[in-house]
Design a protein that fits this description.
With 116 residues, the chain is an alpha+beta fold. It has 1 helix and 5 strands; from the N terminus they run E-E-E-H-E-E.
């Protein structure tokens, strides 16, 4: 872990598009502003962990539903580690982007970004 010292108003730049700025410092609290491209998701650690847990639960529910329905050949669990995944059949559509439409589980944790 890299530890840096910054005063209020000073910033840290990560990569080409992420900027962290110390907004204020109070007793036992630091406010940090994050500027990132719209394609970068920014969450608090506890929210990120909750989303990851719910996604893993959804994957396991989908696999068990396919096994119960007799469709075990359409979705097969690869392994049971932290990188558990699903192998989709050639007929099933594959999407790289998370489901972030309004009203879905992922979007309920944070408000949409303000326009720049």
């Amino acid at each position: 872990m890299l530890v840096l010292t910054r005063r209020p108003g000073e910033s840290i730049v990560i990569g080409d598009g992420i900027k962290l700025t110390v907004v204020s410092i109070g007793p036992g609290r630091v406010k940090i502003g994050v500027e990132a491209p719209p394609s970068v998701r920014v969450d608090r650690a506890e929210i990120h962990a909750r989303i990851q847990h719910e996604q893993a639960t959804d994957v396991l529910a989908a696999v068990s539903a396919n096994v119960i329905d007799g469709n075990a050949d359409q979705a097969t669990m690869v392994n049971a580690g932290s990188d558990t995944g699903i192998l989709n059949s050639p007929e099933a559509p594959v999407s790289d982007t998370p489901n972030t439409k309004p009203g879905t589980r992922l979007s309920q944790f944070r408000a949409p970004r303000k326009p720049r």
